[in-house]
Amino acid sequence: xxxxxxxxxxxxxxxxxxxxxxxxxxxxxxxxxxxxxxxxxxxxxxxxxxxxxxxxxxx
Length: 59
Fold this sequence. Notes:
Blueprint (H helix, E strand, L loop, with lengths): L2 H23 L5 H8 L1 H19 L1
């Protein structure tokens, strides 16, 4: 076994890891959690606006 065999094996392992990651990322089981994570920046703005409006009402 020489260095080229190790390079081939590592390339194959990384390829299968990449395919596994793609399948995991596009899985329908993960859609809900990914959608929630995608909307986090907007939820922060809504919370900030609500807090600002509540402070204005209290003044």
